[in-house]
Structures are given as structure tokens and as C-alpha cells.
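Reference record
================
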Amino acid sequence: MSHLIKSATVIAPGSPHHKKKRDILIVKGRIEKIASNIKDSKAQIIKSKNLHVSIGWFDIGSHHGEPGLEQRETLSSLNATAMSGGYTGLAVFPNTNPVVQHKGDIKYIKESTKEYLVDFFPIAALSKNCEGKEITEMMDLNEAGAIAFSDGLKSVVDPGLLSRALMYKKSFGGKILHHAMDASMDDKGQIHEGAMSISLGLPGISLLAEKTMVERDINIAEYTKSDIIFHGISTEYALEEIKAAKKKKLGVSATVAYLNLVKDDSSLHEFDVNLKVLPPIRDLENQASAIQAVKKNTIDAIVSNHYPLEIEEKKKEFPYAAFGASGLQTVFAALNSFCRKQLSLDKIVEKISVGPRRILNIDIPQIEEGVSANLVAFDPDVEWTFNFSINNSLAENNPYLGETLKGKVIACFNNGIHFISS
């Protein structure tokens, strides 16, 4: 089957088609022709009033539940959720039950997803059982196909373990992602520590919990002459440390969760449990700093922080509800709806497509004739309501369920498979 994307503005810096309106003909999963006006009576037409096209988007750190926690999200439902959100690639966290820490676990994910539109890149556990006590067989896991190593949203408390892992992975060029938050400083924290936490009577999560661990990790990375990816940075303090480290060319990269760009802690005044996330949504000052860090490239990638949970984990009073929100279907629309005054469309697309691939050393797809189509077509002007009927996740813990957003994915192409939204 062939598809014809009509009159789409191409977002592909470095390409001769960048910022130009083009027709793109896709035949049997390959880009056959790119031109100003293509006619093909047999092709299915993909069009919208302000259609745009870019390479497919890529997420780092999506959670799923297979095996052991399939009621939250299966690999199949994650594939459906991702492609409807415009994503053609996912680097998935290892926090399943059991955790992803053996070669067979990596093989299971890769084999189970090889027929999907979305490319799955398994992230293996950094420490055994993600307990922070002993590093995993990192070289074997890398050879089996692990794209990186992480304990997910569990921070590595032991600096010696992190140091050994950073030194060891140098022998094979591995990548380490670390969610840097010293939980011992705020073990009962619920939301950002500030005026809102005081107003709501909730224990706070301080800025220092992130800053001190980021500072520690940068020192370890510098000492070991290794690189590190900070996952989910949320504070101005930590961003200043990362900015300084980048200036010294220490091989430091960073991601930010989209909710930390589109929300501030005033959104929590009604105790919305779907906004109880890690890292916590910060105040306006830290939100503004995060947005500027994206704009100035201190932040390399924007991530979904997709953490699906069963309803029983969320339908509780706020202090007892679990941390986490699903997000893959709403990342672009939320950024486009609430951050376009500060961030250009080009910058948003770069940080959800090129940036994530670059810091993981994954090949970046191209928009040119003769290559396999890895594309997302979207219209930043289309309004749509994210309701339960189009929620492809098994989980319902998304703060935007029932809300109208601006910016819709129209179609997605990868691996010879297509998704077209209704």
C-alpha cells in the first residue's frame, strides 16, 4: 500500500527540504519521492490544513509492566500508546517484575516487539534488582542489545557503585542514565518544597535533594573520565551544575520530563493525584529555568516520564497515592499548547526526536528519497480532546484525560507499518 503526505512543512534541520512544503510518497514503507506536487491516484492521502512532518519521535525512560506487571502496561499497549503519540522509538526502563537484568530479558523484549511499528531499545538494570548494591553483568547485557543502564527512577545512593559502573562501562562504550534525587533527604516528601507544600500541609521534596546528587555525580564522572546522562532534571540548582559541567566538556547530558515544562506546583491545589510524579512538579521559577535550559541546550531531550499505574495505586488520598503519570500520548500536544510562547516548534521537535537519539548514540533517521520511512505527520493547529475512548494505554493516570489540547498526530510510519489517527 502507498501513502501520500500532501503539502507538509518539513522539519529536518540540515535537509534541503527543511521548512519547505513538500509532498512525500511512501511506497511499501519507503520514501519513494519528495517533491512540491506529487499525484498518485492509488495512494492513501494524508492531509491537514497546517500539516507538518518530521522524523518519528523518540522517548527515553518509558515504563511498561511486562513481565509481572502487565495490568499496568504490556509491550503491545505501549506500542499502541507510543505510535498514537507520534513516537517511533522507545528506550524502555528495566523496572518490571523481575527486572531486566539478564540476556534473556533483553532478548524477550527485542523478540516480542520486532513486528511493531515502534522500535524498542531495552535499558538494562544498572544494579542487580535495581537495589543499588551490586552492578549487573553490564558487558554481557550490552552485547545482548541493552542500549543503556539505569535503575529507572531509583537513585543510586552508593557513590562507590556508581563510580565502578562508570569506569566499567567505558570498556564497551555503554551509557548510564541516572535519576539523581537523594531520597534520604526527603523520604516522606510528596510535592515540591515551597509555598504550595506549606499551603496544602504536605511534606516537601527539596531542591537540595536533586542538586547535591547531581553535584556528586558530576564529580564522580569527572574523576572516572566517563560520561553520564541525568534523567528528569527539575531544578535550577541542578541545571546550573550541568551547565558548568558542559562548559568544561565533561560529557554530561540531561533530560527533562515534559510535565516539568508545562506545569508548576500551583496545579496541585486540588490534590490531583495524577500530578504526583517524580521528579516533582516544581514552582514557577524552576519551571522557567527548565524551559530556558531546553532553549539554550543545557537540556538535551524532553521525555514523557511515562509511568502507567493501575487505578488502585492512584485512587487514594494524595499522601498514599503512588508517584507516576502516563504521558506518551500527550507530550507533544501539551508542549505545543502551553510552551509555544517560549519554545519554537523546531526546538520542541528537536528535543523529542533528534536529542534523545543523539545522547544514546542511536542512528538518526533521514527524510530523503530511497530510505525507510520513519516519520510522523502532525498538525500543530488541530484541537482534540484526550478522552478515555482514544487512550491507548492500559492505565488512566494521565493528568490530561478529558482535556482539550492543541496539536494532533495525524499519521506515523516506521518498519513498513503505518498508523493513521481517526
Remarks:
- Residues 56-359 form a domain with the TIM Barrel fold (CATH 3.20.20.140).
- The chain is about 30% helix and 25% strand.
- The CA atoms of residues 292 and 390 lie 33 Å apart.
- The chain has a mean pLDDT of 97.
